Amino acid sequence: MRILLIEDDENLQLQIKNQLTDAKYSVDVASDGESGLFQGQECPYDAAIIDLGLPKLDGVSIIKALREQDFDFPILILTARGSWQDKVSGLDAGADDYLTKPFHFEELLARLNALIRRSAGQASPLIENGPFAINTSSMQVSVNQQVVSLSSYEYKLFEYLMHHLGEVKSKAVLTEHIYDQDFDLDSNVIEVFIRRLRKKLDPENQFKFIETLRGQGYLLKKFE
């Protein structure tokens, strides 16, 4: 999952980015409102974390602009302001949730996970699809209730596909959602990870759970 983080406090920005990276997220950062809005308009994100008090362009203005342009990814706002009016302004602009600084990272992660689940129509952190299951809180993947160990990027790819069951996703889209802004989008590494997922999760080729559609991309089959 790819996250946009707009935060002008460099120390906090680095701390949040590192912790989200440890939690298997890909994170793009911006330190001011103008560059943050540009990134939000140009790149595909699964969610955004936006500070309200930003230089050049405030967080509420960013959220209003994104929503007016029909960007519908979940937005979690951060604010050091104690006033309830600031929180209301952010939510009224189109944000989905908020946290007041200082906060515990575990709460930020829990709220972010919940927003992403809801946007994908998942109420629970446990996503089940036939013999396959993934717990987005513990980051545990299992097949027929047997836990399978995946690398960080294998997990990111499988989680994204599980959030989009039955949908065809191109290599470019998959790359954009599991890597940050510095990655070479022309890489064929997605093919490698697809092969690894097939080998680890379906070694006997029993379920044929990932379909390859030539010239279109990949589809994770939805089991009844």
Secondary structure layout:
Layout: E1 2-6, H1 10-22, E2 26-30, H2 33-42, E3 47-51, H3 59-68, E4 75-79, H4 84-93, E5 97-100, H5 105-119, E6 126-129, E7 132-135, E8 140-143, E9 146-148, H6 152-163, E10 168-169, H7 171-178, H8 189-201, E11 210-213, E12 217-220
Parallel strand pairs: 1-2, 1-3, 3-4, 4-5
Antiparallel strand pairs: 6-7, 7-8, 8-9, 10-12, 11-12
In short:
The protein has eight helices and twelve strands. It is of the alpha/beta class and 224 residues long.
Structural notes for this entry:
With 224 residues, the protein is of the alpha/beta class. The protein folds into two domains: 2-119, 3-Layer(aba) Sandwich (Rossmann fold); 126-220, Orthogonal Bundle (Arc Repressor Mutant, subunit A). The protein is 41% helix and 22% strand. The protein contains eight helices and twelve strands. Strands 2-1-3-4-5 form a five-stranded parallel beta sheet, sandwiched between helices. Strands 6-7-8-9 form a four-stranded antiparallel beta sheet, with helices on one face. The chain has a three-stranded antiparallel beta sheet with strand order 10-12-11. α1 (10-22) links the parallel β1 (2-6) and β2. α2 packs parallel to α3 and α6 crosses α8. The model has no long low-confidence stretch (mean pLDDT 92).
